[in-house]
Amino acid sequence: EAKQTHRGSYVLFNEDHGNQIDRQFRLERALKLSIESDELLCYFQPQYDCNSERIVGFETLARWKNAEFGMIPPSQFIPMAEKSGFIKELGRHVMECTFAFAKSMEGRGLTVSFNASPMELLEVNYIDYLISRYRFYGLSPNSIAIEITESSLMESLEKITSKLQILKKQGIQIYLDDFGTGFSSLTYLKTLPIDAIKIDKSFIDEIVTKDVEKDIVLMIVGLARRLNMEVIAEGVETEEQLNCVTRAGCHLIQGYFISRPICQSEVLPLLGQPKKQTGGVFASETD
Ligand code: C2E
Ligand code: MG
Ligand code: MG
Ligand code: MG
Fold first, then answer.
1. How much distance in Å is there from the Cα of 198 to the middle of ligand 3?
2. CB 98 within 8 A of CB 133
3. 115, 237, 258, 281: residue to mutate for ligand 1 pocket, most atoms within 8 A of CB
4. What three-state secondary structure class fits 188?
5. For 149-179, what is each residue's pLDDT tens digit?
6. Model pTM score
7. What was the ipTM of the complex prediction?
8. Nearby residues of 5 by Cβ (< 8 Å), 6 or more positions away
9. What letters, b where the CB count within 10 A reaches 16 and e where it falls short, cover 15-50?
10. Which residues have C-beta within 8 Å of that of residue 67, sequence separation ≥ 6?
C-alpha cells in the first residue's frame, strides 16, 4: 500500500481517505511502541572544521525503522510525536543516546549536539532532568550542545532565556538551529546565550548560483563574529558549496559532502581517517 520512491520517503497511492486515517492511526500506535521494540535509533552526523581538517562534533538524529511501515523520516514522526505527547519519551531516549555516545567519545575534544523540541524545552521538569542525566554521565564541559529552533523561542523568550542560562552554567552549549527560517531573530541573538548559529540548508542550496544567498551567508557570518558566536553551515552537499561557504568565512560544515548521518559503529573508522576525502561522501546512511 505504500511505495518507496527514494531513500526513506514514501508516497501513498490508490488509497481512499478512510484508509489514510487508518494508516495514520496504526502509525501512531506503532510509534508509541518504537522505543521498547528497539526501532527508534540514533544516528550521528559529523560536523567538520575546514581549518583544522578534523571532525569536531556530531549531531544526533533520530531514525525510526518499523517492520510494517519501513523507514519513516523525522519530518513525519517528530510532528506526530509532538502532537501525541510521545515527544517527551522520544526526547529522553535521544538525550540518553547522545550522552552515552559523548561519554564513549570522551577525550577526543568532540561536541555532540541533539535537538530539543519547543514542547520539551517548555516542560517544567525538562532542564532539571537534563542536568541530572548530564551529571550522571559525568560529561566534561563543551562535550554536549542542545539545538533549539527559532520557533521554540517565540512563545516565551524570558522563560527560555533563563533556562538556557542554567544549561550554559553547567557547561552545555547552545546552538540556534535552522537559522534564518523563522521569524527573525536578531532579538534572540542579543538576548540568548548562544554559542553557535546553524545556517539553514535552504540558504546553502543555492549559494553557488545566487548572489542573494551568498550575501545572506556573509551577513550571518559577520554578525556571528561580532557577537562572538560560531557558525555551522548545514546541508553542504557539493564541493562548490563548500568553497562558497568557506570563502564567506564559515569553516564549520555539516552535510552530505562530509558525511551522511551514520550509526555508532561507523563513527570510529571515520574518525580514524586523517583527512577529508575529496569527492564527497565518507560513508552512506544505511536504511
Ligand atoms: P535538523 O536538526 O535541521 O537536522 C538536519 C537535517 O538535515 C537532518 O535530517 C539531516 O539528515 C539533514 N541533512 C544534513 N546534511 C544534509 C545534506 O547535505 N543534504 C540533505 N538533503 N540533508 C542533509 P533528518 O535527520 O531527516 O532530520 C530532520 C529534522 O527532524 C531535523 O532537522 C530536526 O529538526 C528533526 N529531528 C531529528 N531528530 C530529532 C530528535 O531527536 N528530536 C527532535 N526534537 N527533532 C529531531
Ligand atoms: Mg538540528
Ligand atoms: Mg538544522
Ligand atoms: Mg533543518
1. 6
2. no
3. 115
4. helix
5. 877 677 678 888 999 999 999 999 999 999 9
6. 0.91
7. 0.97
8. 11
9. eeeeeeeebeeebeebbeebbeeebbbbbbbbbbeb
10. 39
